[in-house]
Amino acid sequence: MPVSCVTKQVNMLHQKRMRDSQKVLIPLSIVMIFSGIMAFTGAPSSIWGPNSPIFTTTRHHSTGEHILSWRIKTAPLWVYQGLHALPALIWCLLMPLQHVDRFRRHWPAFHRNNGYIVLCGFLVLSITGYWMLNKKVAHTHDDIWHIHNFSGLIPLGWPTFELTLLALEPLYIYTLLRTVQTARARNFNTHGTWAVLHTMVAYTIAVERVSLLISYVLGLALNFFPKKEVYNFFRLEDTLDAKATAEMDLLALMNLVAFALVVCWGIQEWRKTGSSVKTTEFSPALKDRAKQS
Ligand code: HEM
């Protein structure tokens, strides 16, 4: 193969790194911004009230109101709003900007400063998020090892909201550290890939909110079936406690679904780089020849 052709392909390899599309990041940020605003205002009770049909809300066991409205009344607000929801709003506005190629090329200083803000912001979100889990300021089962299964409807079951979030922690921290380390080493190609991976993992929370909203829409569709049949199918009694328990099952499931969706998103972006093919064409020897030419 002529050297010029190898050079072109090596350049292609560098150009075709993983990306986070604005078409995905912006809608995710918008959903999360609404969520963040509701951490200050509460959820509208006309949509998500104690009498909402099953699976169209996530009601709290004690009052039946949406957990976001309940949380405002019970959480230490300086942490929940000041150190979690507020940084989340800023993070959601700034993170997509890190992935605009034009900004990065024309205003590298902006990219660097904004990068430090979003990464430090994420660290704050992560610390306060796990603090809230630790203090039980979260809508999760009291027993972290509990297996949710819609009262035995699905034999295998799935883990709690808390356990799934804890399992994500190493991924959050590792991708964050690698993003910073490669940027500081000025290894920008690798930095790009780690930054994309970190962004995907960090958006798991937003993907979970989207999955939850979709589950509310599906819950609304259940209204077309006779109530008795739906309750029999999900082995539900028509009590606040039973409904809140089933909706907590669903919340935990959506957390897992979000994790699976983010893995699919990562695989999809990785496949777009064409990394799964042409490995023989990019042997180290060929790369060296290309660099020397
Ligand atoms: C890094 C790990 C994170 C953990 C462990 C975590 C944990 C939590 C917990 C426990 C709550 C309270 C939920 C409840 O009331 O039941 C919460 C709320 C919230 N989190 Fe996080 N969080 C994390 C990251 C993020 C990120 C990256 C964002 C923004 C993109 C975010 C945005 C929010 C918002 C807006 C709320 C309040 C409204 C809501 O619950 O939807 N969090 N988080």
From TrEMBL:
The chain crosses the membrane at residues 24-43, 77-94, 115-133, 153-174, 195-218, 250-268. The lineage of its organism: Eukaryota, Fungi, Dikarya, Ascomycota, Pezizomycotina. This is Fungal transcriptional regulatory protein. Keywords: Membrane, Transmembrane, Transmembrane helix. It comes from the Eukaryota. The keyword Transmembrane applies.
